[in-house]
Design a protein that fits this description.
210 residues; mainly alpha; Serine Threonine Protein Phosphatase 5, Tetratricopeptide repeat; two-stranded antiparallel ribbon; 4 strands; globular; TPR-like_helical_dom_sf
Length: 210
């Protein structure tokens, strides 16, 4: 499936590093298999978590410095996609998905090749990954998951990725948030990732599972 998706001719992996910074909306759109148009003036903003900053280079990664900007009107920053957010996987996500599949199948060289194809179009002064950079298949899979986070941090997929990762002890993730001097944690499979369905609603829908 990923091979066929990557082979579609009217969507191609874009070079974010060298793409005209004033036309990044076009670069983003060229990589989407499907986009939605919102005829509205509303928007959304957000800030990077401290944890995300440990895996995302704010100086070399074009996914950060060409899409994310400090805006005093919106707090720390905002991501500019204007009116065409993605409604399906992107070409970049397909490369990462295939790389993860290769890594899980023990096809290390193919996984690294896909990662390099993507990363050379995302990072300035990029040094290609080598097989020697990973001591085990597990390390390579972990890197694929981190790269997926870097590629999709702005697309609201993190919840689904964390839930999937929590199915495997090797990649299970505890989310931590500091707020007003308090520390809040959402441990794997703790039920804290999403708000529960209210008891009153469950009462009137007894066939639903808790």
């Amino acid at each position: 499936m990923t091979n066929k998706a990557i082979g579609i001719s009217n969507v191609t992996l874009q070079d974010y590093v060298n793409f005209d910074e004033t036309k990044m909306e076009e670069a983003y759109s060229f990589e989407q298999y499907s986009i939605r148009y919102f005829g509205a003036t509303a928007g959304y903003g957000g800030s990077l978590s401290n944890n995300l900053k440990t895996v995302l280079s704010t100086t070399d990664d074009a996914r950060y410095y060409k899409f994310y900007e400090v805006d005093p009107n919106y707090g720390e920053g905002r991501i500019s996609y204007q009116v065409t957010p993605n409604a399906a996987p992107s070409v970049g996500e397909m490369y990462i998905t295939r790389a993860e599949c290769y890594a899980r199948l023990g096809k290390k060289d193919l996984a690294i090749a896909d990662l390099n194809t993507l990363r050379e179009k995302r990072l300035k002064n990029y040094t290609p990954l080598q097989s020697a950079d990973f001591s085990s298949d597990k390390d390579l899979i972990k890197f694929c998951l981190e790269e997926r986070r870097r590629e999709t941090f702005q697309s609201h997929l993190r919840l689904f990725d964390v839930k999937r990762m929590n199915l495997e002890p090797d990649f299970a993730t505890t989310l931590v948030k500091e707020f007003q001097g308090e520390t809040y944690k959402a441990e794997p499979n703790s039920g804290k990732l999403v708000l529960p369905i209210p008891a009153q609603v469950m009462k009137f829908n007894p066939s639903w599972e808790g």
